[in-house]
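Tokens as discussed.
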């Protein structure tokens, strides 16, 4: 079979740098499940997969990243599909633009002689905002996710039906590279409604998805019992020991088992040190998998970037742990697409398993990256000078109830009765700067478990209270995922409920930021925009170094690079060449805390 794959790769070599091919041809292969093995063309097949997410990778680099995975010794690409990237607003789907063109990604994988495992959710986790679910669902006050709750399931089925039309021609049964489709994701970590996961499988079958299915759950009895689907292969997250396989076989006999998430790296939250799992432990685990000829999927072989507002969050720590913008993940292929020591170690291990006379393809040339000399930034506008028309609310409401996902919301009220004392927000999601009569009093940070701040006495008879609230990533895992942003209930001052709010919405859409007019006197109240530019002879990847800025968001030529925060560990934001151009490149920074401009520069690496 490896000779067949090699022949296919050679036959398609002429397409290596061009656009993806058109629709898949007539069926050329079969893929099935036996009681113990995956069967490709009737013969046992060891899946050696690496996960990467097209939504986290600039589309111009999809082919490069897939080639990197192949050169490491893999034969398969696994890919999460993010529902909320394809249906940002209810009923409006996009499977064709930029990094949303899933069909093109899959065809490129086929061009490169790789098979595909599709992981479409509807829930995926992935440290992605709301675990891939669309935030418009959060407008429903009775929302019950990952269940047969009628409103939720109707939305999920609509998404799966549209996605089925996209991927059906790409299934192995139609001559494409897609071998299997995952049902949900780690459902046993969340719920126990076996009827729900069965219905999801039925939806796929109804829409003529006729390849085998698999599930992915932790190697724990209750997770496997609640999460598996009859007739589907069992994925273990992760299967790092023979006892994990024994457990799975005892609960779900008669189907193949594989390690659906073998972790070469790990995620990082704001305020933590970079996660750096051991190379030696990874080598031991992969050696076990290879020696036992077990199928596996590296989660992730390449992480990419949480551009814009796509980074998710966990509910650990003091209740909220937002993920950094980089999804480097300490993966074998780093954020910018380069081979790491883990990559070279894995390439050696995987290469040693090839039959005599076969060898791995050479490692692709690195994508160029450059430094950008220091360039000046200027203060040019403020949130306060660009307030949109207010929405009147007796009580403050979450962002989603105003039709907004993330960004900022300014909640403003005039203090009547109580005018100083302990201000309590029930509950703040996720970060607020607090002002009285335009003067910064301080900040409240959900990540630290903070909910209150003391307001000082003032002399004005009716002081104005401003709460500028930033929504960060929606929680993407476990039981706290109903994570609406902003102020979720009420605000009290020394026990008095504050009412009658003016609410100003700032979704921070790219077009709005690009069109923001300069102000003659933007002031010095925090919540300021800074602007600058640098010139390039030729575009190349770089990392915008935000050292000297505090907390906010960066746009380059209208592309949202994501969030920065001086609590670290990330201080540089990846800016791919596709966001840049020869000549002038414009940079806009919104900083919630800084009041004076500082210069910026571009670095060649993340760290």
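Sequence:
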């Amino acid at each position: 079979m490896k000779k067949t794959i090699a022949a296919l790769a050679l036959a398609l070599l002429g397409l290596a740098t061009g656009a993806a091919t058109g629709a898949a041809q007539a069926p050329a292969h079969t893929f099935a499940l036996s009681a113990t093995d995956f069967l490709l063309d009737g013969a046992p097949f060891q899946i050696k997969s690496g996960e990467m997410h097209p939504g986290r990778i600039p589309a111009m680099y999809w082919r490069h990243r897939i080639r990197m995975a192949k050169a490491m010794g893999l034969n398969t690409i696994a890919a999460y599909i993010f529902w909320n990237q394809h249906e940002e607003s209810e009923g409006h789907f996009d499977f064709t633009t930029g990094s949303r063109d899933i069909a093109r990604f899959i065809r490129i994988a086929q061009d490169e002689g790789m098979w595909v495992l599709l992981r479409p959710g509807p829930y995926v986790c992935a440290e992605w905002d709301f675990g891939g679910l669309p935030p418009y669902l959060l407008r429903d006050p009775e929302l019950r996710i990952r269940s047969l709750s009628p409103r939720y399931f109707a939305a999920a089925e609509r998404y799966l039906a549209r996605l089925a039309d996209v991927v059906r021609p790409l299934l192995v049964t139609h001559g494409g590279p897609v071998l299997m489709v995952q049902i949900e994701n780690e459902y046993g970590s969340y719920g126990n409604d076996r009827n729900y996961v069965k219905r999801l499988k039925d939806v796929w079958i109804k829409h003529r998805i006729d390849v085998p299915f698999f599930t992915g759950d932790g190697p724990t009895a209750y997770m496997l019992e609640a999460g598996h689907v009859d007739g589907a292969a069992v994925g273990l997250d992760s299967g790092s020991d023979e006892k994990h396989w024994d457990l799975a076989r005892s609960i779900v006999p008669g189907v193949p088992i594989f390690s659906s998430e073998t972790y070469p790296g790990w995620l990082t939250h704001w305020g933590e040190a970079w996660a750096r799992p051991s190379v030696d432990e990874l080598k031991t685990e992969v050696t076990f998998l290879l020696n036992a000829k077990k199928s596996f999927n590296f989660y992730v072989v390449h992480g990419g970037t949480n551009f814009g507002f796509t980074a998710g969050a966990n509910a650990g720590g003091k209740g909220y742990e937002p993920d950094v913008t980089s999804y480097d993940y300490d993966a074998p292929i780093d954020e910018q697409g380069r081979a790491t020591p883990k990559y070279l170690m894995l390439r050696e291990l995987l290469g040693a398993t090839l039959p005599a006379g076969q060898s791995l393809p050479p490692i692709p040339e690195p994508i160029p990256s450059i430094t950008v000399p220091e360039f000046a930034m200027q203060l040019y506008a403020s949130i306060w000078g660009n307030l949109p028309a207010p929405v009147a609310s007796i009580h403050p409401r979450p962002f989603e109830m105003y039709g907004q996902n993330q960004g900022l919301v300014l909640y403003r009220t005039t203090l009547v009765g109580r005018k100083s004392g302990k201000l309590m927000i029930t509950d703040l999601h996720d970060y607020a700067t607090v002002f009285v009569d335009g003067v910064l009093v301080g900040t409240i940070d959900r990540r630290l478990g903070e909910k209150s701040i003391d307001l000082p006495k003032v002399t004005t008879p009716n002081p104005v209270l401003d709460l500028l609230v930033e929504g960060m990533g929606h929680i993407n895992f476990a039981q706290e995922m109903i994570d609406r942003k902003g102020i979720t209930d009420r605000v009290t001052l020394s026990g008095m409920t504050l009412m009658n709010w003016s609410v100003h919405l700032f979704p921070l859409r790219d077009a709005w930021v690009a069109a923001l007019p300069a102000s003659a006197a933007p002031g010095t109240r925090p919540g300021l925009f800074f602007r600058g530019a640098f010139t390039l002879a030729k575009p190349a990847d770089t990392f915008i170094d935000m050292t000297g800025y505090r907390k906010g968001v960066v746009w380059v030529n209208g592309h949202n690079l994501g969030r920065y925060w001086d609590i670290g560990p990330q201080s540089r934001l990846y800016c791919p060449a596709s966001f840049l151009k020869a000549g002038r490149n414009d940079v806009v920074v919104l900083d919630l805390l800084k009041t004076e401009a500082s210069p910026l520069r571009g670095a060649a690496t993340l760290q």
